[in-house]
Design a protein that fits this description.
Elements: E1 2-6, E2 8-12, E3 21-30, H1 51-74, E4 77-82, H2 88-96, E5 100-103, H3 107-117, E6 121-122, E7 134-144, E8 147-153, E9 163-167, H4 171-192, E10 201-203, H5 207-221, H6 227-237, H7 240-248, H8 253-265, E11 271-274, E12 278-281, H9 282-285, E13 288-290, H10 291-317, H11 331-335
Parallel strand pairs: 3-4, 3-6, 4-5
Antiparallel strand pairs: 1-9, 2-8, 3-7, 7-8, 10-13, 11-12
Length: 339
């Protein structure tokens, strides 16, 4: 396996022209295609009577297109990204003024390039303003295996976007690595959220779930009536996490749960399941879980259970409708067997 980090964006493909590398370049992004015929703001009808008039009209179209591309070049743009097809005549003028041209049909790639370079996607083929154009320290084409990649790198400045390029022998390995990276990125995002104050992690290995189960069961003892059974069952459901950890480790889950309850009752609230066959302090083992992830899991699981119970209650409370007798028949006739 091979992996590398790019400070910027990377997209599949190759440039449209012969220019493959640009350093310290200004970037202009156009959301639509760049066609040879420049569309005007208004529509009109042109009457051509002679071949000379048709030739002059074509020359005027070429001149207008060249003027627009020349204005783009004079604004300092050295890299143009198009979100659609590029005409041959337009490509000729881009090559003439030494502008690198990149074409991509993916709106996702367009957004990534805009974020990486700080540019704005334009609709019309006009020279961008300084606020609309972006910048990249390096725009180059590399060959990775049998795939061409275009890199928009920010080397000197801090990039708002980064890309991880991974190579592996099989697609299954790539999928596993992608899931691992996705989990790591989401964990870091959750760690940086300041929703719960200074506490970010809680003791893992089933310690936090068992402590919640113990506290909920203790609270259930103080409640009278049928609500007590529901509260205790809620606490009992939280035992599933340390119980599964014990079973997967080849231990007797009942004994482990009993030992955990005994430890937590004595005040060792950070004790969890040790896969070596006993219970131990999760902090000393270095096992922690994200607090925000556990909160969201409890909220979603509780909402799902409440929704199911609410639907069952509505179904049970619905009154059963008795069949109505046919018109003109008495109850005795309706109940009797017609045969």
């Amino acid at each position: 396996m091979d992996a590398q980090l790019i400070k910027g964006a990377a997209i599949r493909g190759d440039t449209e022209g012969t220019i493959k590398t640009k350093l310290n370049a200004k970037v202009a992004v156009y959301g639509g295609g760049i066609q040879d015929i420049v569309k005007t703001d208004t529509q009109g009808v042109i009457l051509v009577q002679t071949p000379e008039e048709l030739k002059n009209y074509n020359l005027s179209e070429e001149k207008l297109l060249e003027e627009k591309i020349l204005a783009i070049a004079e604004s300092g743009v050295e890299v143009v990204v198009s979100g659609g097809n590029i005409g041959e005549l337009a490509m000729h003028f881009f090559e003439k003024y030494k502008i690198m041209v990149i074409r991509t049909q993916s709106k996702f790639d367009i957004r990534r390039i805009c974020v990486a370079t700080g540019s704005r996607a334009l609709v019309r083929l006009d020279a961008p303003t300084p606020e609309q154009m972006g910048r990249a320290d390096s725009v180059r084409v590399i060959e990775l295996g049998s795939t061409n990649l275009i890199l928009f790198e920010q080397i000197k400045e801090r990039s708002k976007l980064a890309t991880i390029i991974i190579r592996a022998a099989t697609d299954n390995i790539l999928d596993d690595i992608e899931r691992a990276i996705d989990d790591g990125i989401n964990t870091y995002k959750a760690m940086t959220k300041i929703e719960d104050g200074p506490i970010t992690f809680v003791s893992g290995a089933g310690a936090s779930e068992l402590e919640l189960a113990r506290l909920i069961k203790s609270f259930g003892e103080t409640v009278s009536g049928q609500d007590q059974y529901a509260i205790k069952k809620f606490g009992e459901a939280l035992e599933i996490v340390p119980r599964i950890l014990a079973e997967n480790s080849g231990m007797n889950s009942t004994d482990i749960i009993s030992n955990l309850y005994a430890s937590h009752t004595k005040g060792d609230v950070n004790f969890g399941v040790d896969i070596l066959g006993t219970v131990a302090d999760a902090r000393l083992l270095g096992i922690f879980d994200l607090l925000i992830a556990k909160k969201r899991a409890l909220e979603l699981a509780t909402n799902a259970a409440v929704t199911i119970l609410r639907i069952s209650q509505i179904i049970m409370s619905k009154q059963t409708e008795m069949p109505k007798p046919p018109p003109g028949a008495s109850m005795g006739q309706a109940d009797s067997d017609p045969y």
